[in-house]
User: What shape does this take?
Amino acid sequence: MPGLERIWVLLDRIGNPQNSLKIIHVAGTNGKGTVCNIIAKSLEKSGYKTGLFTSPWVTDYREQIQINGEFIPEDIFADYIEKYSQYDATEFELITAIAYKYFFDSNVDYAVIECGMGGAEDSTNAIPTPEIAVITSVSMDHTNFLGDTIEKIAQEKAGIIKNGSKVVLYPNGNINGIFKERCISQNAELFEVQDKGNFHLNDIETAKTALNLLGVDKIADISLPARQEYIGNSVMLDGAHNLSGAQALEKALPKDRKITAVIGMMKDKDVVGYLKIIAPYCTRIITTTVSNPRAMNCDDLKHLAEKYCSDVTAVEKPFDAVKINNYDFLLVCGSFYLAREVRKELL
Assistant: This one.
């Protein structure tokens, strides 16, 4: 539910903790989690007490709220929930407010905050001017909320650029003009990242640019669950679900292995666009139905995948779909919800 009215009321009632934090605010379509985690881990390694708020979660609900790599403790999280859940707020608005309150109560040096969706109307944006606003890779996603063109989506994400802020801008091609115009109107100082040739290197360079503005020159290595995550040397788990994510995954796929893919996706995504990129690399595809009301049925997904792969079967339950043993290389992809369901089974 886009809009800041509810969370402004909630934050006001808990003392507006966000106004006292040094925030690095990150918006974009792809790479937000990677950039946030690199920044947070690098700040921690440089001696700063660093809060990190990201979504979606994969391994544990509390992983969305961390300080120096430690999840918010269960008892503290439960206490915040008990105190604040009676207010009129969505689930995401509630945990956003809890993150700000927890970081304030814990006296963090910096809070690295990932937008949940969009920018201007995202609940994380109920803040004053951040220390740095970061824009990562922008592409088509959440079009029913953010707009049906890349320009409209960029306008929404540009809403995190506030008056007088410093802005780090990923190399997004022609749409970067939208962010530049916003910087001019907000008297914001712009730092453009030079294109390094691929998504991963560009994400690193984006994080590095932000860190340099904070006086940090040591870049931490990170590995994140369900982001081209290797489990052993024959299984990869990836939660990306849009065209840019598929393009990044395509470059990371082994070209000398026979790939069996277990794919589950949400029906409100560009399923055909995703399959056009990934399915041709697969020797075999198993489609499955993720446990989510928005999920595409495995039979419908199978029908679409058959246009790009000759060996496609449908298995309703994700746990059953990944319980196969006759594969050279197993790719589990298409949704963070799918990754959340099956990751423990794959470990």
